[in-house]
Specification:
Elements lengths: L9 H9 L14 H11 L1 H22 L4 E12 L5 E4 L2 E4 L10 E16 L3 H67 L7 H36 L22 H11 L1 H22 L4 E12 L17 E11 L6 H67 L5 H36 L19
Helix pairs in contact: 1-4, 1-5, 1-9, 2-4, 3-4, 4-5, 4-7, 4-9, 6-8, 7-8, 8-9
Amino acid sequence: MIKGTYLGGIFLAAILALAPAATMAAEGPVLNLPQLISMALKFSPEVKASKSEVNFAEEQKNEAHGYRYPQLDATAMGGVVPNARRPQVALAPPRIVYPDPSNRLHGVNVFGRLDVMITQPLYTFGKIAFREEAANRNIQVKKAGVDLKRGEVIFQVSEAYYGLTLAEQGKDAVKEARGYLSDTKSRIERLIAIRSPNARETDRYRLAVYEGSVDKFGAQAEEGSKVAYGALKALVGYAPGENFRVPPELPTPASAKSLDQYIRTALEMRPEFTQLKEGLVARQLLVDAAKADRYPTFFAAVAAALAGAPGRDTTRDPYINDIFNQTYAFPFVGAKWHLDFGITKAKINQARAELDQLKHTERTALMGIPVEVAQAHGKVQENYKGSIGLEKAYVNARRWLVTALSNFDMGIGKMEDIFNAFEKYGYTRGDYLTALYEYSLAMAKLDKATGAYRGSLPVEAVPVSQKKK
């Protein structure tokens, strides 16, 4: 059975099934992968949303820090109040007379009052300090979350970029395959015309099968690339009418470092580990803050009031407190102590439970992330070694094809030799390009799995913790 359906464009079938291919625009600047990544990181709404979480966390810290400073509570009120005159002393018989007793109404008038309390915490047993530092650690958690989102964007751009380059190389291969097929078709037609025994009518049909396969894969490449190219443009923020191009070749594979080195890098650089490390400290601080709520808060304060009612006489009797007519301000110190029966204890236990949960999450990550790194590393090594062997295979298959064509022209070869060489060349070149693509994609996955991309972020995207001080 003839394997012509795989001939010429066989590699495109596997490539297009695996790669988000994209087509190169006829015009526009040539953009390499670092440039596209930089553009995508600037444009990405997901990265911007994660940065907003950092801003929110910073304001939470500012809120916690604000409790260190004085707080002012002011209450202003106004209304109506009964008129009142001062008591009078009657001489016969001697007695105190109240012109406007409280059980009678002698007209009403307005009054206004302002109460002010300024409180400054002195010592809180860590209630403020623990929560402020926990909020600071939460900022680091959110910043690592930004890097995590950046890693996802970088991988998406890398995947589309390598697919774009692969699609262009696939199109070149289809063009080359059509050239070989056209050349072979000319030979077949010439030989059949002179009734040569080296060509048969069935060779025409066999060649037509190959041509149909190449046309099929060429159409798949063209249409699939349009959709994926649009997706890549969306990632970097290009408008529909704007275009760009990419370098036409996939990266040359290089041997990867040892697995142990990559695992060590992951433990140091993965954003998730940064989040866990800072999160554990933050949770412990919240536990300590919940414990501190059991103790009193010492404070200094100033209380002041200003009240006046024009329809009421003012008395200077120190034992009479007229809330409608008074003015005072005095400093004092005090302690505020909240006691309850189970509420504070429950809050402490809740904070401990969240801390325990995060510890278990850390153990899970310590088990799972090395496995993820090992899988990505294995794919890199597999495709690196495979690409070396396949490069030799496809180069020699091409030589085989050229030699078969030359031998046929000299009359010492057969048409079957050309078909066999052409088929093997299609296989090996397709497998080689696929190996290059999968190697590049595996390296992108390995960078994401280890967090190594954090060390090569564009300048505008370098996390604060990574910048030189």
